[in-house]
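---------- Forwarded message ----------

FYI, see the Poly [ADP-ribose] polymerase 14 record below. Original note from H. follows.
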Amino acid sequence: SNVVLLENVQETAKEGMLILLIENISGLSDEDGDFSVEMIPENRAAVVTFTGNIDAGEFAKIFNQNYRANKQNITARCLELTKSIRAENIQPNISSDFLTVYFENKRNGNAHVVDVQQLPDEDAAIVTFSHHKGNA
């Protein structure tokens, strides 16, 4: 996987500070498109997606040994590849067939859907693809 989850990110942490920390540890550049950061404040986390050729496991190991990261109590771990996603804000009258065709459409993933489990009480669905790259 080329995705690393940063956990224990304080609500007061700024994305720019995390980007600088990642650049300092990895030697890569956000401006050059080597990685992107998505903040998830409700989970006190951030997701780092590397676009270049980097060993995400080695990055996580070095990150977890970094003085600045430790001082802020931020930890890193690799995210596993998955074949399923959770789609939210699904209207109750949307059928499984519609969701299948939607995600198999070129504009929406172009992936082969093997299962759709609707969660009507949560206005959501779990969509499972035949391959992990189908959930991009």
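H. also flagged this: Residues 84-129 form one domain.
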